[in-house]
Design a protein that fits this description.
The complex is a heterodimer of chains A (782) and B (159). Helix content of chain A is 28%, strand content 26%. Chain A is an alpha+beta fold. Chain A has 4 domains: 157 residues, Aldehyde Oxidoreductase, domain 4 (2-Layer Sandwich), CATH 3.30.365; 124 residues, Alpha-Beta Complex (Aldehyde Oxidoreductase, domain 3); 94 residues, Aldehyde Oxidoreductase, domain 4 (2-Layer Sandwich); 211 residues, Aldehyde oxidase/xanthine dehydrogenase, molybdopterin binding domain (Aldehyde Oxidoreductase, domain 4, 2-Layer Sandwich), CATH 3.30.365.10. In chain A, the strands form 8 sheets. Chain A has a 7-stranded mixed beta sheet. Chain A has a 6-stranded mixed beta sheet with strand order 4-8-18-17-16-9, with helices on both faces. In chain A, strands 21-29-30-31 form a 4-stranded mixed beta sheet, sandwiched between helices. The radius of gyration of chain A is 28 Å and the shape is globular. By secondary structure, chain B is of the alpha+beta class. Chain B has 2 domains: 74 residues, Ubiquitin-like (UB roll) (Roll); 70 residues, Orthogonal Bundle (DNA polymerase, domain 1), CATH 1.10.150.120. Chain B contains 5 helices and 5 strands; from the N terminus they run ββαβββαααα. In chain B, a hairpin with a 2-residue loop joins strand 3 and strand 4. The radius of gyration of chain B is 16 Å and the shape is elongated. Classes of the chains: A alpha+beta (782), B alpha+beta (159).
C-alpha cells in the first residue's frame, strides 16, 4: 500500500523559486513596447465635477494618452456588481450602487480615480498627473455611520432618498419573548474599527491585446480570475476564450485583491485594445491605502438577555455597517457578522439587523476575517459584560452556554454570505475551551500568580474567548488532474494563490491517489486559458473546495489508470497498485507499466475505441458544498501591561483550533500565525483614520502602524483538535482567517483583567497604546 | 527631459556602466534596468523593507536611494545567494522553517539576515527577532522567520 501524503508537513514545492528571486510577480512582467499607467485620484472626498482639464498633461513628451470618464464615451458605465444581494432573506432592502471605476459627474471618496495617464514610462505618467486640473465644487463630507442617515444629511447617491445602502433583518425565535423571561438584559454600544488588507505587494494589472489573434491576455493580482475574465469579456464584447486572465505570483491577498470591477480591470483593458499596445499598471502604497478596499467599520447596539444563573435567553444586535461610497461587493461582510454573533453558544432567540450605509470613504469589501471578527467581538464583549453584572467568572458563563458536541450539526437559522442557512457542521467546542484553559494554566494564573502580581502593583491580565470561522462556502470550485506522457502529473485550476501553499497542498491531494512524488506534480493555479471555471480565493475555501475537486478528479484518474493497466497487464485491477509512478501487480512488483506509458496509450492514434471512451489519463471534477464548513477554536492571552507607558507585552498566546483534517500541518500553523499577527495588529496597532473632511490621514506605513516582529509574542502556542468535516471526503475545513478573527475580543478581556477594579469597560475593537494610556488614566481618576 | 548621468555600479559581482536619469530609484535601476526582479518594492517610502539590498556590505533600502547615489558601490541582491538547485543555507533554513508564504517580502528578509549573521553568527531568538524588526511580513507572524534565522546560523556554522 502506498504511503498517504495527507497530514504530512512537506516542504513547499514553490519555495526554491520564491527564495531565489525567481518568482514572477505582476511588476516583474515586461513586454516589449509596453506602456505604463498612472491614475489621477481625487483629493476631495465629496465633490461635483465641473470639468477635468487634461490638455496640458496630453502635451507632455512621453505621454501617449489621457482619459477621463468623458473620453470613455459609451463605454463608461458603473459596475459590474461583483456579489449579488441576498434576495433570499425576506424583506431585505439593497440599493445596488456598483463602483463607477472612474468618476464622471461626482466624486464620492478621496482617492477615487478621475483620470488615467498612459505614458512611455511610469515616471512620465506620474509627472503628468500634476498637469491634470480639476474644476470641482466641494460638497459636505459624510463619514459618520449613524449621522449618515440623519434627515438632511448630504446624499452620496442623489437618486436615492437617503444614504441607506441596505437593511436586512433576521430573527430566530423571539427576542421579545427572551426579554419577557429574562432576569437581566445588558446593553452595549460596540464599535469595530477600520483596517487595511496590507498585502506587501500592491495590486496591479498587465494587459496585452493581440490584434491579429483577437485575444486579450491579462495578468492580474486578482483573487478571482474567472469572474474577472467573465466581466472583462462582457464589458468588451468578447467571448470568454478570447480573454485569458492569468495570476502571476501574488504577494499576499488578505481580501482586497478579490475586489475586481475597478479601474484596472474595467478601464485599462479598454485602453489597451484602443491603443493596441501592452499596458502595465501597478498600484503604489498610497493608492493602496486610499483607493483599494478595506473593512471593519461597524457600530453595534447589542443586547443580551439572561437568567440569573447566566443562561442566555436571547441576543439582539442592530448594527450600522459602513460600505463606503459604493456597495459592489453586496453584503458578504455584514452577513458574516450576523452568522458569527451566535455561532459558539446556545442562543434560542436572536434578532439581528444590518443597517448598511454609504459614506464618503473607500469601498468596503472583505479583509481577512471579513465580518466574522466583528460578530465574535460583539458576542464575547456581551458575555464579559453580562458576567460582570452577574458576578460570574467569564469562563463560567461561557461553559454554561457553549454548544455541546452532541448538538452538531447545529442549525443556526441565520442566512449567511452563501445565501443558505448557516449550519455548524462538526466539532467539540467545549473541548477547545478546556484545552486552552489547561494550556494557559488559567486556574493557576487566577488563583496563584495574579494575586501576587497585584499585590506588587503589577498589571497582568488573562483573557479567554471562543470563536468560530465560517469557511469553505459555495458555490463551487473545480479542477482537472492529468497524467502526462512523462509520468508527471498536472493539476490545473483557476483558483488563486497568494501564498497559501497550494502548489504543495494541492499536489499532496493528487499524489495521495496517484502514487507519485509530490515534486512530480505540477500545479497550475489561476490561468483561465488552462481551466475555464471557478469562483475565487475568499472565505478560506481553497483547500476544501479545490482540494475536494482535485481529490475527486484524482480518484477518477486512478480508476482510469487501473482499468487501462488491467487490460495491458492482463491482471484484474483489484490485484494492481499505484506506487512510485507506476501501476504494478501488488504481488509481482517487477511486472508494471509506468504512468507515462499509460498516458501515451490513453490516447490511441489508430484503430477503434469502445463507445463512451474518454481519452487521456485525465479527469475533471467540480465540488460545491450544501453550506460552508465551520472551523472553531479558543484563544487565550496573558498580557503584561505597563500602566505608565501603555506598552503591552503578549506574554502567552495559546490557541486551540479545529480545521478538520490538516492536509499539511506546517502550512496550517503558518496560516494561524499570519492570522494572529493581523489580529494583534487590529487590536493594538492598525487603524485607518479619516479626518473631518474625509482625508485619510493614515495613507502610509509611517502613519498606519504595521505589526512588526517585536510586537508579536515569542511563541504562538497552537493546540490542534481534529474533527473531520462530514461535508467532504477528506474532512477539511478552512483555516485562513482563524487568527484574524479572535484576537481583539480576547485582547480587550485581558486588558480589563489587567486593570481589574478600574472598570475599563472597553467596547472598541481597537486600543492603541496612546488610547490605552488615556483609558487607564481616566479609570484611575487621574 | 533631464540629462542622463553615467554610473558604474557593481551588482552581484558584475560591473554595470549605464546612463540613468538622476531621479531613477535604485530599486527601479536594479529591477527594470538590470532585470534583477528578486528585489521587490512594497511601499516606496522606506518602511516595509522588501527592497533591502546590501550596499558595500550594509543592508539598505533601495527604494529610497537614487541609483546615482551609489555610483561606484558594490551591491548584492537576493540573486547573489543560491540557485533553485543549490540554495544558500539561509534560503534552505527559510524553506525548512516555513518562513515564507507569498514570498514577496522574503528577499528583503534574506538580505537583512545575511548582514546580521555576519555580525552575529550565533544569535539568540531575541536577537534574531530584533534583527528582522525592520522588515514587514504580512503572512507569517514572524515566528518562523526568527527560527529560520537561528537555523541558518547553525547551518552556516556547520558549513
Amino acid at each position: 500500500m502506498t504511503e498517504s501524503t495527507i497530514s504530512k508537513s512537506y516542504k513547499r514545492n514553490e519555495d526554491p523559486r520564491l527564495l531565489t528571486g525567481n518568482g514572477n510577480y505582476i511588476d516583474d512582467i515586461e513586454i516589449p513596447g509596453m506602456l505604463h499607467v498612472a491614475i489621477k485620484r481625487s483629493d476631495y472626498a465629496h465633490a461635483k465635477i465641473n470639468k477635468i482639464d487634461t490638455e496640458e498633461a496630453k502635451k507632455m513628451p512621453g505621454v501617449v494618452a489621457v482619459y477621463t470618464a468623458e473620453d470613455l464615451g459609451d463605454y463608461w458605465r458603473p459596475g459590474p456588481l461583483q456579489v449579488p444581494p441576498p434576495t433570499v432573506i425576506k424583506g431585505s432592502i439593497f440599493h445596488a450602487r456598483p463602483l463607477e471605476c472612474i468618476a464622471k459627474n461626482k466624486i464620492r471618496f478621496s482617492g477615487e480615480p478621475v483620470a488615467v495617464v498612459v505614458a512611455e514610462s511610469r515616471y512620465i505618467a506620474e509627472d503628468a498627473l500634476d498637469y491634470i486640473y480639476l474644476d470641482i465644487e466641494p460638497l459636505e463630507y459624510v463619514g459618520d455611520l449613524e449621522k449618515s442617515l440623519d434627515p438632511g444629511a448630504p446624499l452620496i447617491h442623489e437618486d436615492l432618498e437617503s444614504n441607506l445602502s441596505a437593511d436586512v433583518r433576521q430573527e430566530v425565535g423571539s427576542w421579545e419573548k427572551a426579554v419577557a423571561e429574562a432576569d437581566l438584559v445588558v446593553k452595549k454600544r460596540i464599535v469595530t474599527k477600520h483596517v487595511a488588507g496590507g498585502a506587501i505587494e500592491n495590486r496591479g494589472i498587465v494587459i496585452q491585446w493581440d490584434d491579429s489573434f483577437k485575444v486579450l491576455n491579462v495578468w492580474a493580482t486578482t483573487q478571482g480570475p474567472v469572474p474577472m475574465r467573465n466581466s472583462i469579456a462582457k464589458y468588451l464584447g468578447l467571448m470568454e476564450n478570447q480573454v485569458r486572465v492569468m495570476n502571476p505570483d501574488i504577494g499576499g491577498g488578505f481580501g482586497p485583491k478579490i475586489m475586481s470591477s475597478q479601474i484596472d480591470d474595467v478601464v485599462i483593458p479598454w485602453i489597451a485594445m484602443k491603443l493596441k499596445k501592452p499596458i502595465k499598471w501597478v498600484e503604489d502604497r498610497r493608492e493602496n491605502f486610499l483607493g483599494t478596499t478595506s473593512e471593519r467599520d461597524q457600530v453595534h447596539y447589542a443586547e443580551i438577555a439572561l437568567k440569573k444563573d447566566g443562561t442566555i435567553l436571547g441576543v439582539k444586535d442592530e448594527f450600522y455597517h459602513n460600505t463606503g461610497a459604493y456597495n459592489p461587493y453586496g453584503m458578504t461582510v455584514p452577513l458574516n457578522t450576523q452568522t458569527h454573533v451566535i455561532s459558539n453558544y446556545n442562543i434560542p432567540n436572536y434578532f439581528t439587523r444590518i443597517i448598511m450605509v454609504f459614506t464618503n470613504q473607500m469601498v468596503v469589501t472583505p479583509v481577512r476575517g471579513a465580518g466574522r471578527s466583528h460578530g465574535i467581538f460583539v458576542m464575547e464583549r456581551l458575555l464579559d459584560a453580562a458576567a460582570k453584572e452577574l458576578g460570574m467568572d467569564p469562563i463560567e458563563i461561557r461553559r454554561k452556554n457553549i454548544l455541546p458536541p452532541e448538538s452538531m450539526p447545529f442549525r443556526t437559522g441565520v442566512i449567511g454570505q452563501d445565501f443558505v442557512e448557516s449550519v455548524l457542521d462538526s466539532g467539540d467546542y467545549p473541548g477547545a475551551l478546556e484545552k486552552t484553559l489547561e494550556a494557559i494554566e488559567y486556574e493557576k494564573f487566577k488563583k496563584e500568580i495574579q494575586p501576587k502580581l497585584r499585590a506588587e502593583g503589577k498589571h497582568k491580565g488573562i483573557g479567554v474567548i471562543m470563536f468560530t470561522e465560517g469557511t469553505a462556502v459555495g458555490p463551487y470550485e473545480g479542477a482537472k488532474v492529468m497524467v502526462g506522457v512523462t509520468g508527471k502529473v498536472n493539476v490545473v485550476c483557476a483558483y488563486s494563490n497568494q501564498g497559501q501553499g497550494h502548489y504543495t497542498t494541492f499536489a499532496q491531494v493528487a499524489a495521495n491517489q496517484l502514487g507519485v512524488d509530490i515534486k512530480d506534480i505540477e500545479v497550475v493555479i489561476g490561468d483561465t486559458g488552462q481551466w475555464q471555471w471557478g469562483v475565487g480565493a475568499f472565505a478560506s475555501r481553497g483547500m476544501t473546495l479545490v482540494g475536494t475537486a482535485i481529490h475527486n478528479a484524482a480518484v477518477k484518474v486512478r480508476e482510469k489508470a487501473l482499468n487501462l493497466a488491467s487490460k495491458i497487464l492482463e491482471t484484474p485491477k483489484e490485484e494492481l497498485e499505484l506506487a512510485d509512478g507506476v501501476v504494478r501487480i501488488a504481488d509481482l512488483p517487477e511486472k508494471f507499466i509506468s504512468l507515462g506509458e499509460l498516458a501515451m496509450r490513453a490516447n490511441p492514434t489508430r484503430g477503434t475505441v469502445e463507445e463512451g471512451m474518454e481519452p487521456g489519463l485525465e479527469a475533471a471534477s467540480y465540488y460545491g458544498p450544501p453550506h460552508g464548513a465551520t472551523g472553531y477554536g479558543c484563544l487565550g492571552l496573558i498580557l503584561d501591561v505597563d500602566p505608565e507607558t501603555a506598552k503591552v507585552k503578549i506574554e502567552r498566546l495559546v490557541i486551540a483550533d479545529d480545521c478538520g483534517t490538516n492536509i499539511n500541518p506546517m502550512i496550517v500553523d503558518g496560516q494561524i500565525h499570519g492570522g494572529l499577527q493581523m489580529g494583534i495588529g487590529e487590536a493594538f496597532y492598525e487603524n485607518l483614520v479619516y479626518d473631518d473632511y474625509g482625508q485619510l490621514v493614515t495613507a502610509s506605513f509611517m502613519d498606519y502602524l504595521f505589526p512588526q516582529a517585536t510586537d508579536m509574542p515569542a511563541k504562538f502556542e497552537i493546540k490542534h483538535i481534529v474533527t473531520p468535516s462530514p461535508l467532504n471526503p477528506l474532512g477539511i475545513k478552512g483555516i485562513g482567517e482563524a487568527g484574524a478573527i479572535c484576537v481583539p475580543a480576547c485582547f480587550m478581556q485581558a486588558l480589563e483583567d489587567a486593570f481589574e477594579g478600574m472598570d475599563l469597560d472597553i467596547t472598541d475593537s481597537f486600543m492603541s497604546p496612546g488610547k490605552l494610556y488615556h483609558y487607564v488614566q481616566k479609570a484611575k481618576g487621574a | 527631459m533631464t540629462q542622463k548621468v553615467k554610473v558604474a555600479i557593481t551588482v552581484n559581482g558584475t560591473l554595470y556602466e549605464r546612463e540613468v536619469e538622476p531621479r531613477l530609484l535604485l530599486s527601479d535601476f536594479i529591477r527594470h534596468d538590470l532585470g534583477l526582479k528578486g528585489t521587490h518594492v512594497g511601499c516606496e517610502h522606506g518602511l516595509c523593507g522588501s527592497c533591502t539590498v546590501l550596499i558595500d556590505g550594509l543592508s539598505s533600502r533601495s527604494c529610497t536611494l537614487f541609483a546615482v547615489m551609489v555610483d561606484g558601490s558594490d551591491i548584492k541582491t537576493v540573486e547573489s545567494l543560491g540557485t533553485m538547485e543549490k540554495m544558500h543555507p539561509i534560503q534552505e533554513a527559510f524553506q525548512e522553517k516555513h518562513a515564507l508564504q507569498c514570498g514577496f517580502c522574503t528577499p528583503g528578509f534574506l538580505m537583512t539576515t545575511v548582514e546580521f549573521l555576519e555580525g552575529n553568527p550565533n544569535p539568540t531568538a531575541e536577537e534574531a527577532r530584533e534583527a528582522i524588526d525592520g522588515n514587514f511580513c504580512r503572512c507569517t507572524g514572524y515566528e518562523n522567520i526568527v527560527e529560520a534565522v537561528q537555523l541558518a546560523a547553525k547551518k552556516m556554522a556547520a558549513d
